[in-house]
Specification:
Helix content is 23%, strand content 39%. It is an alpha+beta fold. Strands 2-3-4-1-5-8-7-6 form an 8-stranded mixed β-sheet. 29% of the residues are buried. Pfam families: Glyoxalase_4.
């Protein structure tokens, strides 16, 4: 794992939380993105080489809505940048970690992602992120 890529924060009201983090950090978000596969809308703020990701559920069935219902708003996950997500997934499985998917999938902010179950990481949901490289043809 290369670095902390971002910290994901589950929020009920993205507009309110975006304003709050804009005031807290002193600058505006750099990106808003809907992730249909996760049923969320996200906003990203840069902080040095890391990011904060705010996540709002688009329906009551999303993982974010269920998280907020159970635990309230707050830190949802910590994401680590990796060079090769497939190799990192294999390494973690070999080490006994439980992955939430067998294959990486497209996530927000031009990333391939995979989550590691929190029951195998002392209660913390861990996300692996690999930048999707665009191929110019």
């Amino acid at each position: 794992m290369d670095k902390i890529e971002h910290i994901g924060i589950a929020v009920k009201d993205l507009s309110y939380s975006s304003d709050l983090y804009t005031r807290l950090l002193g600058y505006k978000r750099y990106k808003t993105e809907e992730v249909g596969s996760e049923n969320v809308i996200t906003e990203f703020f840069k902080i040095g080489n890391s990011k904060i990701e705010l996540l709002q559920a688009l329906s009551g069935e999303s993982a974010i809505a269920k998280f907020i219902e159970k635990r309230g708003e707050g830190i949802h996950h910590i994401a680590f940048a990796v060079d090769n997500i497939v190799d990192e997934m294999a390494r973690l499985k070999e080490q006994g970690f439980q992955l939430l998917s067998e294959q990486p999938r497209k996530g927000a902010d031009n990333k391939l992602v995979c989550f590691v179950h929190p029951k195998t990481t002392s209660g913390v949901l861990v996300e692996l992120c690999q930048e999707i490289e665009e191929i110019n043809i």
